[in-house]
Structures are given as structure tokens and as C-alpha cells.
Amino acid sequence: MVTLTLLQALTDGMKTAMRKDESVLVFGEDVGKRGGVFLTTEGLQEEFSKQRCFDTPLSEDGIVGAAIGMAMNGMRPVAEIQFQDFIFPAFDQIVSEAAKLRYRSGGQYTCPLVIRTPYGGGIRGGLYHSQSGEAYFCHTPGLKVVIPSTPHDAKGLLIAAIEDPDPVLFLEPKALYRSVKGEVPEEHYTVDLSTLREVQSGSDVTVFCYGAMVPIVTKAANRAEENGIKTCVVDLRTLLPLDEEGVLEFAKKTGRVVVVHEAPRFCGFGAEISALIAENAIEYMEAPIARVTGFDTPFPNTLEHHYMPDDRRVLDAIEHVFNY
Amino acid sequence: MTTMEPLTVIAEDGATNGYDPGLSEEELLHCYRTMLRVRAFDEICLKLQRSGRIGFSIPNLGIEATQVGGASAFKKSDWLFPSYRDFGMALFHGVTPLDMMHNMYGNGLDTSKGRQMPVHFSFVDPIHFVSISSPIGTHIPQAVGAAYAAQVRGEDTAVLASFGDGGTSSLGFHSGLNFAGVWKSPVVFLCQNNGWAISCPIEEQSATDGFAVKAQAYGMPGVVVDGNDLLAVRKVTLEAVERARNGDGPTLIEAKTFRMGGHSTSDDPYKYVPAEQYEEWGKKDPVDRFERFLEASGLWKKGGRDELYAEALAEMSAAAAKAQSTKAPGLETIFSDVYADVPAHLRSQGEFLFELGKRRGDADAGGGEFPL
Q1: Phi and psi at residue B58, in whole multiples of 5°?
Q2: What pTM did the predictor assign?
Q3: Interface list for A 236-295 with B (CB within 8 A)
Q4: B284 closest CA partner among B8, B12, B3, B5
Q5: End of a domain among A119, A151, A184?
Q6: Please, which residues have CB within 8 angstroms of residue A63's CB and are 6 or more apart in sequence?
Q7: Is A50 within a domain?
């Protein structure tokens, strides 16, 4: 075990995968010599050569399109999109190509690729360096959407994503890159996709969250405990395909549910969680399901701390469903 | 280096001015027969579509020489990223009309398992004829990626990305050619300039004089060729393939040709294509041209085409009849191949539909790897 930041765990995950499998390639804008604008790919080009870790022209469509061709032809590409806000030129390649290739070719062609991209607010990035676009992608059959929140999961999920036979969008909570640290095994390991994680147990209220919201929700849960509300925190980790059974199990345990994400509320992932529970476990519910989310506005810069859910807003929701 | 005048090899009288295409007599006849088989496949599909047996088809009349001449420059170990009007390339390399007809009917033996519209073929054998996508230009950067994989492994694979004049306006054209130029990719970009992108003429598509000139902006040679001259297309494509295999990078070829039919069976080109264009290009028929070459070379006797074409029609009709009597895909194919494994939520949605199908008695589940 070593103690690493989430970012270091990602670097370690890529290195581990690249050492194990020569077909793993890492590329994107500034990922080579520069090591990425966040330094996530630092040292990769040095260790694995320019052929396996390299810079690309400034074109997200080209990066993902080329990655698809590589994946089709036997490689395991890991493409970086510098900020998730810049991914939309590649939306066509992700949604209409990567996610549909296996299906439309009856399994003749497959697309085992990973698209890594930092997402989310909290770094004063304003409109175009802060968005959480997971919902756009979760509406895409054939794609997997993964978001880690701890260094251990970051490495294990990333390796699992690279070794997965299908395309994975790997959203990295940039606000946590250097702010969380944790113990990480030095060797190769994987964390199963489509499995959620109980961050802490509690019998009164269940809060579902993921990515950068996990530490915020945990803080709120601890404050709730002080007020005598035993709060269970669940980190979804993989949004698509979702561990639906796990969600229902944790919802039924308490009958009081809060869903937290920083993305806008309308048609956000919280709506899916709420509907899943309403359809399958409404009889277990002791209170209406509450959502704590970003607002249905573009992402602001100066006032981002008012836009993003914080522990106070989460605590309010926990108390609301508890006292209902 | 960009050429502006289209290269031709076969003169009006069939002479080739000494050019040796490097094909045996049998291979030359295979080129000729393949063009006729494309035509026969089209004719049968048009009838099937007009009689309501299939929903859609894409005619190729007029551009057969570009498809076949281009395809002839590649080996079976190469990769073709085709557009939707390229199946002559598949036929040339040995894909069977029956496998194509299964797709036209979307039946249970279709490689796409009935998931795609007709003409959206996908084959891995006998050549990689990559699954066709309807959005325009998306396959262009993918071809560059597939080529990169071959480069990394030190293989001498050449990759073809084929698209139309309209495709040059797409995002994928720009990113694909730009990446290929930077990476010196072993890719041949074949722009089939057939004059029309559905109803949009080339003057409204681009302000450049033709399309080969765009190569300059990506740091690669651009070559213009007479697309109705099979040997000319073969010549420039072979040269581009050789450059690719030698590590000299990509080439953009513009084949000037003309779509003598509509965009698809859902289109009425007489609404927008001026009659004189049909008249002009009708005189430049690529099959006639190649036939004259065969005659001049003593490989073919005038008047033999009818018999060969009748054979091709019979072959396509037989394939269509077989495909028509092949069962539809099982219900499980809605849910399989979304992922390598069927995740829990798709299993439960599948089971719902199988149960419904059973109750209604109008669809079968089973036969595939689902239900589990």
C-alpha cells in the first residue's frame, strides 16, 4: 500500500495497465511531454515511448474518432479529453459510433476504449471548465459511465475500464484530484464496474451520490449523526450500467432517500434514481425523495459556491426527509 | 503536390497507351464482372423496394469503376472504411451477394442482425469492410485510428476511407485528414465526387475548385482522377497504397464521376439534377469504357455482355429469394451486443418483451445467446 492522491492513483492506474498490456495507448491534447494540463499523464511518455503516450492535434472529434479505429483494430486506447466541457465535438463519435459499433455490426467490430475527462466545479472554472455532463452520456445504450471518488477506486476502476470490452466514459472529479488522499495497493487490481459502494452505514436516511459530491455528502452525514440522524452514504461509482439492485436495497433499508449531484436537476441522474425507487420500492418510502443538485442554469464562476451543493444544503435535505 | 487535370488511362477507343495495370486476364474480367454484378444487385434491389419487399436501397449506377478500380488496389489484409455507396468494393473482394441480401432484408442471418437499415453492410471476412454508419464522415478519423494501430504493430496494412463530395464538409473529414497528415498515416482518402450530396450540387458544397486541392491544407498529395475510368482509378489508388505501405503517409484522391441515379430509393433526382448532366455523363458510362478496353485488348468480344449480365441478375435473384425466406432475427437480438455481456437492466427489459411476444404470439425469442 502507498498513500496517493486521486490524481496519482489515476497515473498509477494507467502505468499499471500499460505495463501489463502493450496494446494500451494513452493520448490527447498535451498529454505527452507536458503530462496533461493536470499532470495526470506525467511520466508516461518517458516510460512507455512516444508511440504509446502522445499528443494529438486539438480536435476532440479526431481524438475519439481515432481512438475508435484503434480499438476496432486491436488496441486499448485511453483518450483524454482535457475538460469534459470540451467533449461535445466528440459527442457524435461517442454516442453514434463507439456506443453502437458492437450492436450495429452484430459483434463483428467492438470498441474497447476509455475516454478519461475531468468534470465538475469547485476550481473557479466558470461556464466551460466546470460542467457535469454525465446525464447526456447515461442516456446512451452501449456506453459505460464511471466516476470514482477515492484514490483506491480511481485506480481500480480505471484499470477495470481499460480492460473492459466496451467503451467507457471515465469522468474524473477534478475538485478531488489533489484534495483527497488514500491508501492504494501498488500492484494491479480492479474494482468491478456496475457495483456501488457503501461509504458509511446508517439506518435513518440513505444518500446516493458520486464523484466530487461524496466527501461533501459524507461531511453532511457526519453533521446529521451529531443531530442523531444515522445516515447511510452510497457512492454509485458506475452510473451506467447502474447497480439497480444495490440502489433499491439501500433505499429500502431506510425508506428515506436523498440524491445529490452537482449537475443541473432537470433530467439529471437524480431523476433516474428517484424514478427507479418510485417504480420499484414506493411502498418502502417514508418520505418524498429529495434531490440536492446544481441549478438549472449554466455554471457560474464567481458564485460557484452558491451553485454547487454543499454540506449545509445536503444536511437540510437529510433533515427534511428524516422529519417528514 | 496536387494535380488538377483528371488522370485518364483508357482512351475513347479503349487504348491504354501502354499502361500495364498489373492484372491478369482473369483479374481484368473479374473487374468487369464485378461492375455488372453491382448493376444487377442494384436492379434487383430496386425491384424489391418498389414491390415493397425491402424498405430501402442505394443505387450505384455510374460510379462502379471508382468502386472497383479503387478496391482492386487493396489486399485482403487491408481495411476498408466505406461509405454507403461502396458495396462494389465488397463484391470485388469476395463478399457474397447472399450475405449482402441478408442485410437488405434485415433477417436473422444479416451480420448486423437486422439492426441497421439496408445497405449498411458490415463484414470482417474476406476483408475488413467496416460496419457502415449513416452519419457522414464519422468513419474518416476512425480509419486513421485503425491505421495507427497497424503502424504501432509494424504491420504494412493500408487503410481506405471512402466518402463523397458532401463528406468533405464534415467534421470527420477535417479531423481525419489533419490527424493523418500529422501522423503520416497509411491511409488512402478516396473522395468520390459524384456531383451531388443528395440534392446539393458541388458548387454549393465547397468554394474550392474540386476537392483534391484540400489535400494541400493537410500536408498530403491530392490527386484528381477520372472516376469512370477503372484503370485510372486503379493506377492512382495503387500509387497511394504504395506510399502508405512505404511509410510516406496519406493521399487524397478525388475521383470525378457522376451519380446517374438518385441518392436512394427514397429520392427523386429528376427534381433537381439538370437533364443535360445526365445526357453528358450518360455518354461516359464506366462499364462501356472498360468494355472497350477489354475489346481492344482482345479479352472480350462485343455482344457478350447480355449473357454475363443475365447471369448476374440470376445470381442476385437467387440470393434475394434465399434471403427473403430466411427468418427474422429473434427478439433477443434487440438486447444482445449492446455490451459484451447483457447487464441486469437489459435482461429484465428483455424478459418483459419475450413474455409479451409469447402472449401475442407474434415474435420469437431464442436462438441467440439470450435468454439466459
Answers
A1: -120, 115
A2: 0.97
A3: 241-242, 244-245
A4: B12
A5: A184
A6: A27, A28, A29, A56, A79, A80, A81, A90
A7: yes
What is the torsional sign of CA B36, B41, B44, B49? negative
Tell me which of A137, A154, A184 is where a domain ends. A184
Residue B11, Cβ density class (10 Å: 0-12 exposed, 13-18 middle, ≥19 buried): middle
A8 touches chain B (CB under 8 A): no
* Model pLDDT for residues B241-293, shown as the tens digit of each residue: 999 999 999 999 999 999 999 999 999 998 999 999 999 999 999 999 999 99
C-alpha A177: how far from chain center: 12
Domain match, A220 and A310 both? yes
DSSP class per residue in B233-259: HHHHHHHHHHHHHTT---EEEEEE---
Same domain, B291 and B217: yes
Task: Give chain A's mean pLDDT.
Answer: 98
Give A137-191 pLDDT, tens digit per residue. Answer: 999 999 999 999 999 999 999 999 999 999 999 999 999 999 999 999 999 999 9
Residue B162 corresponds to which cell in the numbers above?
471512402
The residues facing B81 across adjacent strands are B161
Q: Count structural domains, chain A.
A: 2
Q: How many Cα atoms within 13 Å fall on the side-chain side of residue B337?
A: 21
- Check whether residue B37 and residue B133 sit in a common domain: yes
- CATH number for the domain spanning A204: value is 3.40.50.920
B272 is catalytic: yes
Shared domain for B231 and B359, answered yes or no, is no
Say yes or no: B368 and B232 in one domain. Answer: no
The alpha carbon of residue A312 is apart from the nearest alpha carbon of chain B, in Å, by 35
Report yes or no: B340 at the A interface, CB cutoff 8 Å.
yes
Check whether residue A176 and residue A202 sit in a common domain: no
Active site residue B243: no
CA B258 to CA B276: how far, in whole Å? 12
pLDDT at B367 over 70: no
Considering B287, B306, B324, which residue would you say is the last residue of a domain?
A: B324
E strands within chain A? 2-5, 24-28, 53-55, 76-80, 114-119, 144-146, 168-173, 181-184, 197-200, 205-209, 231-235, 238-240, 257-264, 290-294
Q: Are residues A175 and A206 in the same domain?
A: no
Domain of B340, in residue numbers: 330-372
Assess whether B47 and B102 both reside in one domain.
yes
The answer on B226 and B154 residing in a single domain is: yes
Write down the H helix ranges in A108-208: 134-138, 151-163
Rg of chain B, C-alpha, whole Å: 21
Q: Are residues B307 and B371 in the same domain?
A: no
Residues 150-189 of A with CB under 8 A from B: 165-166
By residue count, chain A amounts to: 324
Closest by CA to A101, choosing from A143, A63, A61, is A143
Mean per-residue pLDDT, A209-237? 98
Find, among A111, A126, A137, A60, the residue nearest to A300 by Cα.
A126
CA dihedral B97, B103, B108, B109 (to 10 degrees): 30
Q: Number of A:B CB contacts under 8 A? A: 141
Residues A170 and A211 in one domain: no
Residue B119 lies in a domain: yes
Separation CA A234–CA A246 (nearest Å): 9
Determine the structural domain holding residue A258 and report its residue range. Answer: 197-323
How many domains does chain B fold into?
2
| pLDDT, averaged across chain B | 95
- Whether A208 and A121 map to the same domain: the answer is no
